[in-house]
Amino acid sequence: MKRDSEKTRQRILSGLETLITREGFTGVGMNAAAREAGVDKVLIYRYFGSMGGLLEAFANEKKLCPRMEDIFDNLPDDTPHHEIATRIVLDHSRALQKSPLAQELVCWKLTEQNPLTIAFGKSMEQSGMRALAEMGIIPDEEIVTLVTVLICGLQHLILRGRNNNPMMNIDYSKPETREKVERVISSVIKTFFESREGESEKL
Amino acid sequence: MKRDSEKTRQRILSGLETLITREGFTGVGMNAAAREAGVDKVLIYRYFGSMGGLLEAFANEKKLCPRMEDIFDNLPDDTPHHEIATRIVLDHSRALQKSPLAQELVCWKLTEQNPLTIAFGKSMEQSGMRALAEMGIIPDEEIVTLVTVLICGLQHLILRGRNNNPMMNIDYSKPETREKVERVISSVIKTFFESREGESEKL
DNA sequence: ACCTGGTGTCACCAGTCGGTGATATACATC
DNA sequence: GATGTATATCACCGACTGGTGACACCAGGT
Predict the structure, then answer these.
(1) pLDDT for position B129
(2) Please, where in chain A does CATH 1.10.10.60 lie?
(3) Residues A135, A144 contacting (CB under 8 angstroms)
(4) Which residues of chain A fall short of a pLDDT of 50?
(5) What gap in Å lies between CA A176 and CA A119, rounded to an integer?
(6) CB-based contact (8 Å) between A133 and chain B?
(7) pTM over 0.85
(8) Residue A199 and residue A188: Cα distance in Å, rounded?
(9) Which numeric CATH code is attached to B5-61?
């Protein structure tokens, strides 16, 4: 093996990535990580100290959160709020849909707390908060709540779709199903916004 | 140990239950199951053949799905449809909230396919379908979709709440947060139903 | 040429895993 | 009491796990 510590570090980290995506988080371990990277496991201890250290480094140096394409760039200023909210929900779910790594991390986070899942959670949280802030009209708690529940719902459907676990016959791995769901999401957000505007007019 | 095969069978099964709820599904294994039940693991092989057989028996003989209290019993016949739909969503989530075992099984199902998770999935699916059927007005796909997404969203929030993983500052383990979310759910379902009624009148 | 420190390789440890064969013990039947 | 059978216990296997110490190698500096 060539003597290049930085390169082996990277080999280990990207080996971990393929390991997580291929075997799932239950398959992650010292020996497996070393095998996957084609490296003696003692090097992992040398460079990262422990499994926790490895996960932490992975969290710091890898892009965990699938980049949401910048949602608001090509939006005219007069875009209705409900349309922005819809975008947030749908873009979030599409980004997750595209990233098997992120999917596995969401799943991991639901079952275990470790440096990686914690960091991943924070990064997701930030991304979400930033999106909400950009929405302009944050202070309405109810709308934030609705958007959050919808995002969670889609996340859950995506995770179920991975192993063909339909829910109420909704198999989110099928594109036509996704389209249908997205239409409903868009519609429900629109009506909810309208109903709230109606109320505020009454006051 | 007393010689009572049926009793040891039950000891093994209920030991598995406490094992799952205490350690999570990642802690489930032959040795652990035997330890937990205070039984030699060879007995597990004798009675259940394999881990798969044990999980299958567990699925058949234990109540996996938290019984939704019969939602529709004390409902007057003229209860608005949107109220019924709301009940379905909220009762489903409250039932899950009460059952740590079911929560773990949902989580397990997202990461692995085995006799137990498969059976659990089917049982959840049936329960959901039955609820929808009772709702009377099934054929509206959009409403079914909305209800499903909302249920998924609440499921996800519940799972996050287990390990204090708030989402957009929504910590579903706090009762007051749950109340707020439930109010929004109820409200959004109501407005969605109303908007659809309005449309059908137009036709 | 010699040392030094960073790097990679190997061998090994104790502990746990899933899984199995042989054997002891209790109980019902004769 | 003797026999047979179902039940439970024990000992063990190979494979794998996380973790560590000893050593070989190869650079650069003196």
Answers:
(1) 86
(2) 5-61
(3) no
(4) none
(5) 34
(6) no
(7) yes
(8) 17
(9) 1.10.10.60
